[in-house]
Write a structure and sequence with these properties.
The complex is a heterodimer of chains A (200) and B (126). Chain A is mostly helical. Chain A has helices at 7-22, 28-50, 56-67, 87-94, 99-118, 123-130, 164-168, 171-196, and one strand at residues 51-52. A 5-stranded mixed β-sheet of chain B has the order 5-6-4-3-7, sandwiched between helices. In chain B, strands 1-2 form a two-stranded antiparallel ribbon. The chains are: A mainly alpha (200), B alpha+beta (126). Strand 1 of chain A pairs antiparallel with strand 5 (67-69) of chain B.
Chain lengths: 200, 126
């Protein structure tokens, strides 16, 4: 049975990203970016434990779509991907024989992952972080690049923006939500290791 | 023991009961992706199988093929998930007699607009 790799490696990086944010002595925009990255990697660690397949091409397609996307829960509507080639078109082109199964895998993985998230105490906070995925759109809030807040004529550096609590959530709550998410994923990884016979 | 839940096992492996399957289906029915039916099949088998009708999935000639998911925090069993839009699942029933037989004997756990009943009726005719 083929798998997507090591979920514990993704979770380790999620922990380190959160630790980097907590280390302090940095602008809020940088901390907020690390929170988003911590979330993204924790969710991907979780997803890897869910998906097993005998079809290596399906895993490859799934990995390309899901593991390379910033916003795991927002992916899988096989539609426009930030102005790039629409997801379904890209899959049909690269995987003409298995694209339907890849789409089905992505959709169902997203649903099972949402179900896991919705069971967390801080589900709403996690969903909010997922909705703040990095974007190329010039008016969209950006963790890393100057953007035009609310369509303003002048661009603003993320380091100068004061709307992070509204955008991503109150910082203390975000930290608790990520602690809970990482703990939940760690339990999932242990369960995955037991059931697959692999070492955690 | 009062309040104890009967544990079903097959060959020593614990399998989910109806309460656990219903809880899973209820959680799925609340997600953003619309789901119009859920049918539990192979109820006494060694691993749970669930057929879910998701109208927004594209047509799929292999709709009867399950995706197999490992146990998760909220559902502690490996899950064989068969999903597709209604048209693809109906076509799968006509093509795959074993799948049709399983659906005919299946238990409807979620139903919207009669979709599940239609599929079960079709499965019984095949």
């Amino acid at each position: 049975m083929a798998t997507l790799g090591e979920p514990k490696v993704w979770l380790r990086q999620a922990r380190r990203d959160l630790a980097a944010a907590r280390a302090g002595n940095t602008d809020e925009c940088h901390r907020r970016y690390w929170y988003q990255q911590s979330y993204e990697k924790a969710i991907k660690a979780y997803v890897i434990t869910l998906v097993t397949s005998r079809n290596a091409q399906v895993l490859s397609g799934f990995g390309e779509v899901f593991l390379r996307h910033h916003s795991p829960l927002a992916v899988a509507k096989a539609s426009d991907n930030e102005g790039l080639e629409p997801l379904e078109d890209r899959l049909k082109r690269i995987y003409p024989k298995t694209w339907e199964e890849i789409v089905k895998t992505v959709v169902n993985v997203r649903r099972l992952t949402e179900s896991f998230v919705d069971n967390l105490n801080h589900a709403r906070s996690i969903r909010k972080i997922d909705a703040t995925s990095p974007s190329f759109a010039i008016n969209a809030v950006s963790y890393r690049y100057p953007f035009h807040p609310a369509g303003a004529a002048r661009a603003m550096a993320p380091a100068d923006w004061k709307g992070w609590s509204t955008y991503q959530g109150v910082e203390a709550t975000v930290q608790k939500a990520l602690d809970e998410l990482i703990a939940g994923v760690a339990i999932q990884i242990a369960s995955y290791a037991r059931n697959s016979g692999s070492r955690p | 023991m009062a309040g104890a839940v009967a544990r079903k096992t097959v060959a020593g492996v614990r399998i989910p009961g109806k309460t656990e399957m219903k809880k899973l289906v209820t959680a799925h029915s609340r997600l953003d992706e619309p789901m119009t039916a859920a049918i539990w099949i192979f109820q006494d088998g060694p691993a749970p199988w669930l057929v879910e009708v998701l109208p927004e999935l594209p047509d799929d000639p292999s709709a009867a093929q399950p995706l197999v998911f490992g146990p998760s925090n909220d559902f502690r069993y490996s899950l064989h998930l068969v999903s597709g839009n209604e048209r693809s699942l109906a076509a799968a029933l006509k093509k795959d007699k074993e799948f049709a037989r399983a659906v005919a004997l299946g238990e409807i756990l979620h139903e919207k607009g009669g979709v599940a009943a239609k599929l079960v009726a079709l499965a019984k005719k095949v």
